[in-house]
Amino acid sequence: MIIFFAGEIQDNRALLLGDEARHCSKVLRKRVGDNVMFTDGKGFFYKGQIVNADKNKCEISILEKEKAEELPYKLSIAISPVKNPARFEWFVEKAVEIGIDSIIPLICKRTEKKNIKTARIENIIISASKQSLKAKFPVLKQPVAFNDFLESINPRNTFLAHLDKDAVYLGKIASHGDEIVLLIGPEGDFTTEEISKALGIGIRTVTLGSTRLRTETAGVVVCQLINTVYEMEK
Q: Of the four, 19, 68, 132, 141, which is 20 to 30 A from 99 by CA?
């Protein structure tokens, strides 16, 4: 099933704009009178009929609206951007496919690349959400410094991924709460000072296994672990 993203919805009308309109009218050759499926990115699927179509804009009359099933958990990952942008983009794509609520670029002391291409990543989120038939798109937050982020979270449901002999395996604590915030450090890991500061406010360390993972791999592993735990609890 092909679904589109409607950038504007008002009353019983929706608009496909830009690339969405071009894909609909030029690539798939949809015409006036054809039915299409689309989402608002906020949790709803729609069925509609095209009433006007060109390469820049497709106007759709809404026929049906259905609330999509939501994830049984809320997962936010604060993750350091990596030196190779393609690897970070790979993480975003796979995290969206598996299931995530928000992605926060976390700027740590050892973060080598401190900025991201926001528009490009948002397009990846839209594309991956449509491909995996998700009606609610994850939120991409603005990059935030490590210390500032610690001041904004609830330590009770926040964990820091760290290869530490005393850390608990993430899969064992994932079902302890419906909201999980996970911090993943840069390619050089968190500094000793950053770890100490996180532990000092009550954040717990967790391990993702016995092997050392790349930053972007760790992010995908977190998504899959959380998803698996909740799927098994159904």
A: 19
Residue pair 39/5 in contact (Cβ under 8 Å)? The answer is yes
pTM for this predicted structure: 0.92
The span from the CA of 193 to the CA of 213, in Å, is: 21
Over residues 131-143, the pLDDT tens digits come to 999 999 999 999 9
pLDDT value at position 164?
A: 78
Q: Backbone phi, then psi, for 212, in 5-degree steps? A: -85, 130
β-strand partners of 49: 35, 61
pLDDT at 109 over 80: yes
Q: Is 104 exposed, middle or buried (0-12, 13-18, 19+ CB in 10 A)?
A: buried
Bridge partners of 14? 9, 60
Provide the domain count of the chain. Answer: 2
Q: Give first-to-last CA distance, the chain, whole Å.
A: 26
Q: Residue 25 belongs to a domain with what CATH number? A: 2.40.240.20
Do 54 and 84 lie in one domain? The reply is no
Q: What is the mean pLDDT of residues 202-219?
A: 92
Helix (H, G, I), strand (E, B) or coil at 53: strand
Q: What is the CATH number of the domain that holds 94?
A: 3.40.1280.10
HSE-CB for 52 with a 13 A CA cutoff? 7
- Parent domain of 133: 74-233
Q: Is 74 helix (H, G, I), strand (E, B) or coil?
A: strand
Q: Among 168, 173, 174, 181, which residue's Cα sits nearest to residue 230? A: 174
